[in-house]
Amino acid sequence: MKFRSLVLVLVVLVNSLSAFAHKKEAVISGRIFSIENGIVEFATVYLKNTGFGSASNSEGLYHIVAKQGHYTLVVSALGYETVEKDLTLLDGERIKMNLTLIPKIEEIEEVEILGKAVDVINNSAYNAVAIDTKKLSNTSLDLAHILNTVSGVRLREEGGLGSGTQINLNGFTGRHIKIFIDGVPMEGSGSSFKLNNIPVNIAERIEIYKGVVPVEFGGDALGGAINIVTSKTSNTYLDASYSYGSFNTHKSNLNFGYTSKKGFILQLNAYQNYSDNDYKIKTKYTDLMTSSVSQQEDWFRRFHDKYHNEAVIFQTGVENKRWANRFIVGLNYSREYAQIQNANLMTIVFGGKYRTSNAITPSLNYEKKNFIIKNLDVDLSVRYSDVSTNNVDTVAREYNWSGEYIDKDTQGEGVATLAEFHGKTGYSVANLKYRIGENHFFSLNNMYSHYVRKTTNSAANSMQSSAATFMRRKNEKNILGLSYKYVHSDKWNASLFGKYYYTNVCGPVNVAITGRDQYEEQTRNSDVFGYGVAGTYFFTSDLQYKISYEKTYRLPTDTELFGDGDYENGAANIRPENSNNFNMNLSYSHYFDKKHSFTIDFGAFSRYVTDYIIRTIGSKGIATSANHGKVLGLGTDITLRYYYKNILVVGSNFSYHDMRDKELYTAIGSESVTYNNRVPNLPYLFGNADASYTFYRLFGKKNNLTLGYNLLFTEKFFRSWAGEGAKLYIPRQMSHDINMTYSINNGRFNIAVQAGNITDALLYDNYSLQKPGRNFSLKFRYFFHKQLNN
Amino acid sequence: MNQKSLLFKRLFRFSFLIGSVSLFSSCEKDENISNGDVLQSGTGPYFIAVKASSGTEYIMQAESLEEGDLNISSNIMELPQTEYTWIFKEDVAIGMVYQQQFAGIGYGFRYKKDSSLEKLGEFKISSRFSNYGFFGSQLMTSVAGQVSADGTRNDGATFSFWDINDNSVSLERTTTIWTEDITSNDEQITFAGVVDLGNGEFLSSMVQSSFNQTGTGNGSSIGDVAFPDSVWVAHMDKDLKIKNIYRDDRISYSAGQYRSQVFSQLGKTDNGTVYVFSGSFDKNTTKACGALRITTGSSEFDKDYYFNIEEQTGGYTIRRLWHMTDNKFCLEIYNDINISTITPGHQFAIVDMEEKSFKWISGLPNKSLILSGAETGGVPMFNDGKLYMPITSFGEDASIYIVDPESAQATKGITLKGVYEIRTIGYLNYK
Description:
The structure holds 2 protein chains of 2 kinds.
Chain A: H1 2-19, E1 26-34, E2 44-47, E3 53-55, E4 61-66, E5 69-76, E6 83-89, E7 94-96, E8 99-101, H2 120-123, E9 128-132, H3 143-147, E10 153-157, E11 165-169, E12 172-173, E13 177-181, E14 184-185, E15 203-210, E16 224-230, E17 236-245, E18 249-259, E19 264-275, E20 280-286, E21 292-301, E22 307-319, E23 326-339, E24 354-368, E25 376-392, E26 397-399, E27 405-407, E28 420-436, E29 440-455, E30 473-487, E31 492-510, E32 519-538, E33 543-554, H4 558-562, E34 577-592, E35 596-610, E36 613-617, E37 623-627, E38 630-644, E39 648-661, E40 685-695, E41 704-714, E42 717-718, E43 729-730, E44 733-744, E45 749-756, E46 764-766, E47 769-770, E48 775-786
Parallel strand pairs in A: 1-7, 1-8, 13-16
Antiparallel strand pairs in A: 1-4, 2-3, 2-5, 5-6, 9-15, 10-11, 11-12, 13-14, 15-16, 17-18, 17-48, 18-19, 19-22, 20-21, 22-23, 23-24, 24-25, 25-28, 26-27, 28-29, 29-30, 30-31, 31-32, 32-33, 33-34, 34-35, 35-38, 36-37, 38-39, 39-40, 40-41, 41-44, 42-43, 44-45, 45-48, 46-47
Chain B: H1 3-25, E1 46-52, E2 57-62, E3 70-71, E4 77-78, E5 85-89, E6 92-96, E7 104-111, E8 117-125, E9 131-135, E10 138-146, E11 156-164, E12 169-178, H2 180-183, E13 188-196, E14 201-209, E15 231-237, E16 242-248, E17 256-258, E18 261-263, E19 266-268, E20 274-278, E21 290-294, E22 307-308, H3 309-313, E23 318-325, E24 328-333, E25 347-352, E26 357-360, E27 381-383, E28 386-391, E29 398-403, E30 410-417, E31 419-427
Parallel strand pairs in B: 3-30
Antiparallel strand pairs in B: 1-2, 1-31, 2-4, 5-6, 6-7, 7-8, 9-10, 10-11, 11-12, 13-14, 14-15, 15-16, 17-18, 19-20, 20-21, 21-22, 23-24, 24-25, 25-26, 27-28, 28-29, 29-30
């Protein structure tokens, strides 16, 4: 019933979009160039004293639709002189006008900054946010921590650098959110290559799609998708940085790109993270002689939580050839070493357990515009990852939080293991885009993935070996998506899309009829069809309305089906989750007096999930996943930002995500005591606030100093259901970070100082797992950039 | 205005801004980080460990099991881990937990004069346990299949002895014995059951097996059994010296199994006779499910005693069993004749081992409707002349049935709203 009324509302709204329309309008379009450096992205182009305007895209192109009349065309961009040009538009006329901007480095302070985010993603019909990570290049944050500042997103960490992390996005968490790198799923690329260990400098921007995901991302994303877009610039650059921080944390990154005039591309990205993670924690102490746990908590320094990972990404290829706009082959190698300090209860401490992981990933990307026929663009990506993970627990000792130990007669702090797992994942993503005229856009996307996991080291697993241990786990998925987008004008556009999901899984199933467990390899198929619509309407160039709906599905992951061999158990009978996701956004941005600018973004969503897969601790204490009835979520994300020139930026976002159990009966048919309870172990009320102030021309004409402040807030939430009388909770978090960046010679040399959790608050994202206290870091960065003049 | 003073003015403005932001955020310093891990006050001698349908486990306290329905929300404590095993003695309740790859944090509680509970303390269980019981004033646990420190052998059986003190539960000692040497036939031994003989010595059943199971898994220490038609019981002292081995060929080994867990099938009556049951779990055994006995002080099985239980059940075998009173035991019997480690046992009977009498318990829901006790929970309790059986059936909340030991007739007692499964019930006595 609810679903039907939702669809009805949607149809009415989409129709209402088309009601505003039609009059014979003039179109002015063109490209914005810089006098020295090729195109200018994200320049603001508008007709003075009117609501008609747009921003140049990543190719420098802009496009404005207006009524006939005399206008002044204004083009402004950060760091450039503003250009004004008078023109007259006639009814139905199409004008092409390219403009060239002159850099204005010395007068940077006076340049207006756009309150309205100038990104195409932000202006699309989807409930999406894009972050320009280039602006954050001087921070020592990884991608996960940058996501943590985005509205509606909350990162949950189990500890310090390299620890387990989960992303919460509009009421969804973990595997309900798919993560992509340049449109290819990140899943299967190994723990050595994850959001929380990839430095910010790798990405050009991060796109966050909440609830509704374009078909270009061939993923079964139930709650949304995050896409990391790496640099595809045709420039020569060198970005090298090193940071040192508390807990003996060293991070370095070298990012080098070269493009020859003939179009030969060479890119090398190497990075490293290292930390002792020896931060102090407050916990109970175990007496080694008696195994008694103290009643009182005390402060201890972590002593077995060293983490390091290293990665090299090498890419080479060509661009602007007759047969390819871009053809790149790449090879990634990454590895990781992680000591395991504690169990999922911090009281339980280890001193010898560790995990290692290695991943090697060859990849290929082919892009061609006007492929065979005009207006047909093709983008093909293929990636293969070979990941091996080794869990080691062979120390015959028992440790306590003081770092003391006693010898034991037997191996293993938990159950002795040397388990080694081998995962091989292949992805191929093909995307075809076809445009008919200026108004009709078609997109066809197919994503095929193939995953096989095997326990490889038989000797290492002799302690608990069985036939099942060595049986393969295979997971194949194919997702085919087709979308049609109608762009009526700059005023409004709408999209309609469908996705066909197919999965084939194969793994051991207990088939014992008599005697002890007996496993046999079994295969299962399932397929399902999902669909959605999205539309946007600009009431004025300042006020945008977005509406979108998608019936999403998520097929169970290989880990949910077959476990990870350590803490997670398989559940081969998990059904795909499905959700009805509805989003509405209203954003208003305005700038006045050439000095002040502000943005208000209000988003509301509803999610109705059935067969929700939640991660629980199953029998034998191993985490497992189960389908859990129905959940209805209603939520809102609000963002406010104010800019004073580009000197002062103050912003805040606030999220309230109310996800509630709507299943009247338990799985066994008894009346549920958790009906209408809030879904536990999920942050539901959180927000951020930030402020930054830049002093220009400080101790030098080309030198700037920026001071910044960030606040993160998450309300207390319970670990289990209120109706059960839950008592364990994750306390309220309030963390304050400050930072200072001094950049010399227009950003060629940069020094950044950061202080995190300055009040030294006890922070927890997960029950009992304490995060680091007050910490500092210092980062040096050298950045050289030379643009090719195309 | 010169540049410097402008700078300071701006710095001031900025710091004011930060100040005001942090003001609204307040500086709440969370001194108490127990995060809800506290025991709330309740009343009543009955200690009920329950599991909700979400899998979370709680402790509840009750004045009566016969009347006054309870709601899970009135629990007195949420437990941080799951699959706790509870064991009771007089005024003390001990909860043990072990999680694969991780150790567990166990809890001890004491029943106070005012009929509330107090926490005796927490203790870390680093050796996994598959077998446990009281031995003298101590709690003893054991686990087999342990790997030696140098990694050369994996036939270790590790025993831990825990003291229950006034304000803590503490490990007195941990001893590992290498079991391949015990019977010298190149097989390892898994111990199942602890029968305290009261003289500083105990009996424990021995399951001899190879180190791994062929074609199957689950991390159990019991591998392929070469001699499934014999039973062995070890008589050991507190230093784990084997004083005698009882051996017989009339029944199969005495132990039940659920995945990696081992169930005790030994029981001592009030007069000291030890009954050794065999559920004939191994599929290769030719022996019927039955029982032998060891009379007080005897160094061998009673040659004149054999009770063929399978004859009484009509082919079904025993999963778990609990001593009630005198010579009476409650038997948990598998639902199917052909069984695997995960087959549930939802049929119950009361046997008098001396008289060799057998009575099915009546008045319970049909075996196919019962969900509780499919794993390690659903453990009944005998108290004050009655057997209290926790039962959850499809479409219902967990209930406690009260069984009369003479008539074997069950009647429904209290219901626990919102409880998926009662894991264990204990009756605590203020000392």
